[in-house]
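Bumping my old thread because nobody answered last time. Still need a sequence for this structure:
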C-alpha cells in the first residue's frame, strides 16, 4: 500500500532536483553570455574602455569611476574619455554640426515642476548627407543641482508611454533625503531621430524635452526662499556607423553655438523656513510638549484608574 506513495514522492524529488539544475544552468549561461559580450566589446570595438564599458549610458561610466557629480571632474571626463572615440567618424563632422539651446524654462508652480528644453541642431550641407545615411539618436544629460531630484519611477512611466527612447537617473537617488544631506544627481535622456527629419530648407533639426522634477526640503534661509540654478545640459549625437564590415555606435559631440543659445541660468526659487522663525517654532513646540506631558502626569495622579472599583462585586 505504501509503495505508490513512496514512488510519487521519489518522482517529485527528481522533478525538483531537475528544476533546480535547470535554473542554475540557465543562470550560468546568462552570466557567460554577459561576460562574452563584455569581452567582445573590449576586443573588437574601436571605442576606448570607458565608452565601450557603458555601451548604453554615459553617466553609468562616469559614476563607476567617481562617487559624486562635480563640474570640473565631469568636464574632464567628457574631454578626455569621450572625444575622438570612434575611428569611423569623419574628423570634421563635429565642426559641421552645431547645437544651441534657444529656449529653456520651468513649467508649473510649487515643488513639482518640469524643466522644458528646446534643442536646435544646425547642420552644414556636407554633414546632412552623412547624417541621413546613418541612424542617430540624441543624448541629453541633465545635471541636476543640489536640492532637486527626478523620480525614477515617474520617468519609467514616461518611458513606457514612448516619451523617451531611454532614460535613467544616476547619482543620489534617495528621494527622502533633505537638501543638506543629499548629493547631486543626473538624468540621461535618449531620443531617436528619424533620418528624414534631419533634412529641411534650413538644414536644422529642433527637438524638445520636458523633464519632471521635484524639490527636496531646503535649508533655512533669511529671505524665506532657497534658489537653485540649472546650467546648460550636455548634448550628444550617437550614430550607428558601418564601413568596410566594421560597425560602431559613434558618439558625436557637436560644437556649441553660443550665439543661438540662452545665456542666463534657469532659477527655481523654492520656499524655505526663515531662520529667525526657527527659534520661535522650537520654543512653542517645546512649551506645548511640556504642557501636554504635565497634563498627562496630573491626570494619572488625581484621576487613577477606577475600573475595578466601578465594576460590581462578583458574588
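Sorry it took so long. Here it is:
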Amino acid at each position: 500500500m505504501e509503495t505508490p506513495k513512496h514512488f510519487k514522492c521519489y518522482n517529485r524529488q527528481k522533478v525538483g532536483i531537475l528544476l533546480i539544475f535547470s535554473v542554475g544552468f540557465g543562470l550560468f549561461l546568462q552570466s557567460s553570455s554577459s561576460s562574452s559580450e563584455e569581452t567582445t566589446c573590449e576586443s573588437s570595438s574601436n571605442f576606448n574602455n570607458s565608452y565601450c564599458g557603458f555601451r548604453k549610458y554615459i553617466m553609468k561610466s562616469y559614476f563607476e569611476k567617481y562617487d559624486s557629480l562635480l563640474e570640473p571632474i565631469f568636464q574632464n571626463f567628457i574631454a578626455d574619455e569621450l572625444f575622438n572615440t570612434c575611428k569611423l567618424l569623419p574628423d570634421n563632422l563635429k565642426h559641421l554640426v552645431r547645437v544651441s539651446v534657444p529656449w529653456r524654462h520651468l513649467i508649473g508652480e510649487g515643488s513639482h515642476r518640469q524643466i522644458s528644453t528646446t534643442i536646435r541642431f544646425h547642420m552644414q550641407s556636407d554633414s546632412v548627407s552623412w547624417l541621413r545615411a546613418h541612424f542617430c539618436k540624441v543624448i541629453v544629460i541633465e545635471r541636476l543641482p543640489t536640492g532637486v531630484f527626478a523620480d525614477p519611477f515617474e520617468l519609467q512611466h514616461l518611458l513606457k508611454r514612448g516619451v523617451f527612447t531611454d532614460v535613467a537617473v544616476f547619482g543620489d537617488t534617495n528621494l527622502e533625503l533633505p537638501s543638506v544631506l543629499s548629493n547631486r544627481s543626473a538624468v540621461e535622456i535618449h531620443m531617436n531621430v528619424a533620418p528624414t527629419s534631419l533634412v529641411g530648407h534650413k538644414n536644422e533639426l529642433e527637438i524638445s524635452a520636458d523633464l519632471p522634477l521635484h524639490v527636496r526640503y531646503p535649508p533655512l534661509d533669511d529671505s524665506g526662499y532657497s534658489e537653485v540654478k540649472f546650467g546648460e545640459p550636455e548634448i550628444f549625437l550617437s550614430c550607428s556607423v558601418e564601413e568596410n564590415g566594421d560597425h560602431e555606435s559613434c558618439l558625436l559631440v557637436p560644437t556649441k553655438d553660443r550665439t543661438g543659445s540662452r545665456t542666463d541660468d534657469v532659477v527655481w526659487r523654492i520656499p524655505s523656513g526663515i531662520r529667525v522663525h526657527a527659534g520661535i517654532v522650537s520654543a512653542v513646540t517645546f512649551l506645548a510638549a511640556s504642557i501636554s506631558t504635565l497634563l498627562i502626569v496630573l491626570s494619572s495622579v488625581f484621576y487613577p484608574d477606577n475600573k475595578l472599583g466601578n465594576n460590581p462585586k462578583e458574588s
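The two ends are 61 Å apart (CA to CA). Let me know if any region looks off to you.
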